[in-house]
Design goal:
Layout (H helix, E strand, L loop, with lengths): L2 E5 L4 H17 L5 E5 L1 H8 L4 H9 L5 E8 L2 H8 L5 H10 L5 E7 L2 H5 L3 H9 L8 H10 L17 H16 L7 H7 L6 H7 L4 H4 L3 H14 L6
Parallel strand pairs: 1-2, 1-3, 3-4
Helix pairs in contact: 1-11, 2-3, 7-9, 7-11
Length: about 240
């Protein structure tokens, strides 16, 4: 069975959410693929050593067919800023990927992991209401469709520090909570405690559903899905 190692060096919450999404992709397309993951701490440990990341990738490739690095990519301004920083994640990962002869890939998550979650707003409603049955509720379907972005990679911050997919999801989660319990509208402190936070991403990921059409709502999610399918089919990655 082909195998892939997913490495999300920014956050172990991201790792768990990405692995959950990867498993959903594999199940949806009925792929025969084993999925494992690297940790944030593991990345930090090897990246501080000379050629440490390259050596770690080579070790992982002894038991995996492909290593995929996944990091957030938000606004063009933020990406440009990181590109200028010698020790930024992208500048540490890219040389290793370039030297891997296609055995390691870098996928930029457009626009942050939350944009992958936002491809299924109805699933997010299921999570924050703790009720998966609302998938069949016309009122909730209409509500979710109202907030569903057509292309979640277009949720960008207008400037550094501006709103992005994470902020969109926080605001959306508040609207869900208020719809479920209108009394929360007058309790901002309680609402803030209940709204989306990054540590919830793995559980939110469990609530979303994926299909061919839903995956197309984010270009980087589509790219990720195609990589997994291609590997499962025994194709060469380039």
């Amino acid at each position: 069975m082909p195998s892939v190692l997913l490495w999300t060096p920014e956050s172990d919450h991201d790792r768990d959410a990405v692995c959950c999404i990867a498993q959903k992709i594999v199940e949806y397309y009925k792929c025969n693929l084993a999925i494992s993951s690297g940790t944030k701490q593991g990345f930090n440990d090897v990246a501080r050593k000379p050629d440490g990341l390259k050596k770690a990738v080579n070790i992982y490739l002894k038991s995996n067919d492909l290593v995929i690095f996944l990091i957030d990519a938000d606004s063009p301004q933020s990406q440009a800023q990181r590109g200028k920083e010698k020790n930024s994640l992208i500048n540490r990962i890219k040389p290793v990927v370039d030297a891997s002869e296609g055995k390691a890939l870098l996928i930029l998550i457009l626009q942050e992991l939350e944009a992958w979650l936002l491809v299924d707003c109805l699933g997010i409603c299921c999570y924050f209401t703790k009720n998966p049955e609302i998938r069949n509720n016309p009122e909730w379907i209409k509500f979710a469709n109202k907030y569903q972005p057509g292309q979640t990679h277009f949720i960008v911050e207008a400037e550094l520090g501006g709103n992005n997919a994470k902020e969109y999801l926080k605001d959306f989660s508040k609207e869900i909570l208020i719809k479920k319990n209108p009394n929360l509208r007058n309790k901002p402190k309680n609402l803030k405690e209940l709204q989306y936070s990054e540590d919830q991403s793995p559980e939110v990921a469990k609530s979303i559903e994926l299909s061919n059409e839903i995956i197309k709502r984010n270009e980087s999610l589509k790219e990720f899905s195609l990589c997994l399918q291609k590997l499962a089919q025994g194709g060469e990655n380039s």
